[in-house]
């Protein structure tokens, strides 16, 4: 179990423009640091960290010796990072670390435009690192008020001095620049969550709305970038049916040309030309990730083809390159390997290993992950993944159905999944399904999950479970359902709606009392969040009927609940109410609460205890392996 408790060695890693340094985000127990080290000898030259619950969320080399960082906060390991809107910077030698923009600026930073000792209540995010400029970047700045308007500014990455360059015509803005660094697109939404896209022809031209959810056109356009001559804009375009496409838009004529559209999957990650914001292709993530390029003979396409041939069977991604294009940092991963990083010499076509995410796992001993496709009862195509225990025949196995959290626009992928691998090591088949509402399969697929908590989204999980039985993979008498966050909700709803299908259910940091989501937790804190709750989950009076706390009498299988007292996304009160309802209904239930944990456990002792208890709980119903007893942990109930 220890390998699953320890964090990865790194999260992300990027090469400096001259190739002299690496910068990497490093996960610690409950924070993420940035570490800079030399390429020659891998000697650490600088470290940046902010303490508990503070995470370096993203970073960019903005000069050969300066790194810009965006911060986020997570109160639990299962949290999606919440950006704080702070921008920090540090030199490659570890000097010059300071906050440039954000709520922790209090008149002490050079160039700040506020009175001494007065906090500037704004959130800022990097828009364009302006390749070729070593001192300035373009950022978006937004006041810390609900659904505010943004402004684009030029930021000096050494002094923090900012100069206004554009005002947004829409709230909650994301800006897009051309290759000269001029703001050309503004995309956002107000409290009504109606998205709008605006365009301007130059820095001095007025804004004009060119797309919107309310314009009667088939799908929304999301800007990706411009061609090298700035005459063509590239959009990711949504469609009423089917997956998103990538479209080229001729600015002068208004002509649109479809460049990429897969029959099944959305474009997942955009591939840009080295050292620029010019889109050249995309990854698609249905099954093993694959690359598709606008021009299959482009230098980028040839480079990826060469790399993919060098690492057969693996997924490959270039994380960064030197300015001259001679060296590239390449991440290589698969379903049994969390990832290795190589330095690729593009002239000599040679690769040198730099670092691994986890050296303690032997890929040859891990469980293979197979992409699967099935049909829901209404004919909707569903995609997912089946993880089988290493060297098993894949037939009549005890199985754990593992719905993902979110749930909307979240996607299970072909990759190394900690929980799936741990369960497979214990002898279980693991089924993960991208039920309707999940991301990656078009806007209509997401929309199909609107207000379907406990409805068709749950039916998809049931249908997938029965499919696994029909395929002979799962033993019908040995199936449990386990998930975290929304997955915890789906696990308890599965036990309530299908009491004869699942032999046990486990919910980790889940939500079980849906009306409570409208009054407790962080989702309803802003106007657009309240709109989201009503439009996507349902009004309080409508969701009570699909709350597991109200359906405890229908649950016949034993239940395991785990939660954290500092959880703001799914407050522990959800689990406490669920436990109480189960006990009153006479359902066997056990629980594990830690008052100092949030939306997912951080502390290794707590994680070890949780997984030990989970494996023991599953074993009593399914007969799989258990872990060695964990040492007692503090603050356990």
Task: Summarize the structure in words.
The chain has 637 residues and is of the alpha+beta class. It has 10 helices and 35 strands. The strands form 8 sheets. The chain has an 8-stranded mixed sheet with strand order 28-29-31-30-32-33-34-35, with helices on both faces. A 4-stranded antiparallel sheet has the order 1-2-3-4, with no helix packed on it. Strands 5-6-7-8 form a 4-stranded antiparallel sheet, with no helix packed on it. The protein is globular, with a radius of gyration of 25 Å. The two termini are 22 Å apart.
> What's the story with the biggest beta sheet?
8 strands, mixed
Query: Could you say which overall geometry the principal axes of the C-alpha atoms support?
Result: globular
Q: What is the count of helical runs?
A: 10
Strand line-up of the largest beta sheet = 28-29-31-30-32-33-34-35
Q: Which structural class do the helices and strands define?
A: alpha+beta
Specify the oligomeric state: single chain
Mean pLDDT: 93
Q: What is the CA-atom radius of gyration, in angstroms? A: 25 Å
The end-to-end span amounts to 22 Å
The helical percent reads: 10-25%
User: What's the count of strands?
Assistant: 35
Strand % is: 35-45%
Contiguous low-pLDDT stretches (5 residues minimum) are: 107-118
């Amino acid at each position: 179990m220890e390998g699953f408790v320890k964090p990865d060695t790194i999260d992300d890693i990027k090469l400096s423009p001259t190739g002299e340094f690496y910068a990497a985000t490093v996960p610690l127990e409950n924070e993420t640091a940035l570490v800079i080290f030399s390429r020659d000898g891998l000697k650490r030259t600088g470290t940046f960290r902010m303490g508990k619950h503070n995470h370096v969320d993203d970073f960019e080399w903005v000069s050969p010796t300066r790194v810009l960082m965006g911060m986020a906060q997570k109160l639990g390991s299962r949290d999606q990072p919440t950006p704080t809107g702070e921008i920090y910077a540090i030199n490659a030698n570890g000097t010059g670390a300071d906050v440039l923009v954000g709520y922790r600026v209090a008149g002490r930073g050079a160039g700040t435009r506020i009175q001494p000792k007065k906090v500037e209540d704004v959130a800022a995010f990097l828009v364009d690192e302006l390749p070729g400029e070593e001192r300035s970047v373009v950022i978006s700045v937004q006041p810390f008020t609900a659904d505010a308007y943004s402004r684009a500014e030029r930021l000096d990455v050494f002094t923090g001095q900012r100069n206004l360059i554009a005002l947004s015509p829409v709230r909650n803005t994301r800006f897009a620049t051309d290759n000269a660094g001029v703001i050309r697109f503004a995309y956002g939404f107000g409290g009504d969550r109606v998205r709008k896209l605006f365009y301007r022809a130059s820095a001095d031209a007025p804004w004009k709305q060119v797309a919107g959810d309310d314009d009667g056109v088939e799908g929304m356009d999301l800007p990706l970038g411009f061609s090298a001559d700035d005459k063509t804009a590239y959009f990711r375009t949504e469609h009423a049916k089917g997956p998103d496409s990538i479209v080229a838009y001729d600015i002068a004529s208004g002509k649109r040309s479809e460049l990429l559209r897969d029959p099944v999957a959305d474009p997942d990650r955009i591939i840009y030309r080295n050292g620029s914001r010019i889109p050249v292709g995309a990854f698609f993530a249905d099954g093993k990730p694959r690359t598709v390029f606008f021009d299959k003979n482009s230098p980028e396409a040839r480079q990826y083809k060469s790399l993919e041939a060098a690492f057969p069977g693996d997924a490959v991604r270039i994380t960064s390159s030197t300015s001259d294009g001679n060296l590239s940092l390449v991440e290589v991963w698969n379903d049994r390997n969390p990832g290795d990083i190589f330095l690729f010499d593009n002239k000599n076509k040679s690769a040198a290993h730099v670092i691994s995410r986890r050296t303690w796992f032997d890929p040859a001993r891990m469980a293979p992950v197979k992409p699967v496709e099935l049909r829901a009862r209404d004919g909707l195509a569903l995609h997912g993944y089946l993880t089988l225990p290493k060297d098993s025949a894949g037939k009549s196995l005890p199985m754990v159905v593992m719905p993902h959290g979110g749930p909307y626009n979240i996607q299970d992928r072909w990759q190394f999944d900690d929980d799936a691998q741990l369960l497979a090591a214990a002898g279980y088949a693991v089924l993960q399904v991208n039920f309707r509402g999940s991301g990656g399969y078009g806007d209509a697929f997401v929309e199909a999950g609107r207000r379907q908590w406990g409805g068709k989204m749950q039916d998809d999980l049931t249908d997938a479970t029965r499919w696994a039985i029909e395929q002979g993979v799962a033993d019908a008498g040995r199936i449990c359902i386990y998930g975290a966050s929304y997955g915890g909700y789906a696990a308890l709803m599965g036990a309530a709606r299908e009491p004869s299908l699942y032999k046990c259910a486990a919910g980790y940091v889940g939500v079980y009392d849906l009306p409570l989501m409208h009054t407790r937790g962080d989702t309803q804190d802003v106007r657009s969040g309240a709109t989201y709750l009503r439009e996507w989950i349902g009004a309080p009076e409508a969701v009570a009927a699909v709350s597991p706390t109200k359906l405890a009498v229908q649950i016949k299988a034993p239940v395991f609940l785990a939660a954290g007292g500092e959880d703001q996304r799914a407050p522990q009160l959800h689990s406490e109410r669920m436990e109480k309802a189960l006990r009153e209904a006479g359902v066997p239930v056990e629980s594990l609460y830690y008052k100092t944990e949030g939306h997912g456990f951080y502390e290794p002792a707590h994680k070890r205890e949780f997984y030990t208890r989970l494996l023991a709980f599953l074993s009593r119903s399914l007969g799989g392996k258990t872990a060695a007893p964990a040492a007692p942990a503090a603050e356990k109930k």
